[in-house]
């Protein structure tokens, strides 16, 4: 099931643009589309100096258009969501090759004279998906029907979206009526709709979370993509708004073993998983007194199989909760799914 907060027709397939990115964490849009919408991606394109790759075939815009691509997607989500001047020539090249441009950045494509003028001259579309719908209400705080799960993180860009997508898929495979609710630009591109929470005016952010996960049947699950971290020095606000507005019955906390400093803010340590669970439950109880933590999702992509199994087992023993890497699957993930769906508490 897809939830649309706005109706936008996205030209497909995509050429993924990596800019001049050297930090893999900032290329999460490109990686997300590769992993969850791979059939819509024909290749990747980068500027000089980029060191990040999705592993897809490197293509020029002209080659991608010849291979069927109809849009270049900016696959970067850098701090501040800005479009550097060093990218503009590449974006113009893409339009000249016949591609529309899709962006999830805070910066608006038509605010750049060269992009606007080129698009108007060639008849190309400039599509900004980081646009919230009109008429978002202030949060009511009222309880509503249905079941809700929210993924939270100890930091940004460590698996909240992947975990929500994997849980939605697992729920559906078990015959559970479930919907993935996208809250960021990558999730919106994957799902076809949602609300970009970090583009919503602060006073309306919890209301946006209510709008995103409306009244549903008692046995329906909304699996809501988390954003930021409650401990993040810059993005805690959007995390708290999601927590209060979505009123989750269940949370799953996401963490990357080995990450010690907050991404983009090295002066801040990544909080402990247990500390994150404790704070989330305390704050979440404000709008749902029955909130509980089902378990922990670990991003073990940088570990080999043996090391991943060890850290999963060690974390499970320390916290006394189901712990799994959803992308590795297996028995550990099935136990986490069991814990999420449990209704005896």
From TrEMBL:
PANTHER family to which the protein is assigned, alphabetical: DUF1611 DOMAIN-CONTAINING PROTEIN, GLL3100 PROTEIN
SUPFAM superfamilies xref list: P-loop containing nucleoside triphosphate hydrolases
Name the UniProt record assigns to this protein: DUF1611 domain-containing protein
Any Pfam family the entry gives: DUF1611_N
Positions of the D-glutamate N-acetyltransferase-like C-terminal domain: 138-331
Record domain D-glutamate N-acetyltransferase-like N-terminal: where: 51-132
Annotated source species: Agrilutibacter solisilvae
């Amino acid at each position: 099931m897809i939830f649309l907060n706005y109706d936008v027709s996205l030209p497909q397939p995509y050429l993924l643009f990596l800019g001049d990115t050297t930090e893999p964490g900032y290329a999460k849009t490109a990686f997300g589309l590769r992993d969850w919408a791979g059939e819509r991606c024909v290749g990747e394109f980068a500027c000089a100096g980029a060191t990040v790759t999705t592993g897809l075939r490197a293509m020029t815009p002209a080659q991608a258009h010849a291979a069927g691509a109809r849009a270049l997607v900016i696959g970067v989500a850098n701090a501040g969501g800005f479009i550097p001047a060093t990218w503009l020539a590449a974006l113009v090249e893409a339009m000249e090759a016949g591609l529309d441009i899709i962006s999830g950045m805070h910066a608006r494509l038509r605010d750049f004279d060269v992009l606007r003028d080129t698009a108007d001259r060639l008849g190309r579309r400039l599509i900004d998906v980081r646009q919230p719908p009109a008429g978002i209400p202030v949060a009511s705080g009222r309880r509503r029907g249905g079941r809700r799960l929210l993924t939270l993180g100890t930091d940004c860009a460590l698996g909240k979206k992947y975990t929500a997508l994997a849980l939605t898929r697992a729920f559906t495979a078990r015959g559970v009526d479930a919907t993935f609710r996208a809250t960021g630009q990558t999730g919106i591109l994957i799902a076809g709709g949602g609300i970009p929470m970090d583009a919503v005016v602060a006073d309306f952010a919890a209301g946006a979370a209510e709008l995103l996960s409306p009244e549903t049947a008692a046995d329906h699950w909304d699996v809501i993509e988390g954003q930021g971290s409650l401990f993040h020095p810059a993005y805690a606000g959007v995390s708290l708004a999601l927590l209060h507005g979505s009123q989750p019955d269940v949370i799953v906390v996401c963490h990357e073993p080995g990450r010690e400093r907050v991404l983009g803010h090295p002066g801040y340590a990544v909080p402990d998983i247990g500390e994150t669970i404790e704070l989330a439950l305390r704050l979440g109880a404000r709008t749902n007194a029955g909130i509980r933590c089902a378990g922990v999702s670990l991003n073990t992509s940088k570990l080999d199989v043996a090391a991943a199994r060890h850290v999963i087992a060690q974390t499970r023993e320390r916290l006394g909760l189901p712990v799994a890497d959803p992308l590795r699957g297996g028995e550990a993930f099935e136990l986490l799914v069991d814990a999420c769906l449990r209704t005896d508490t």
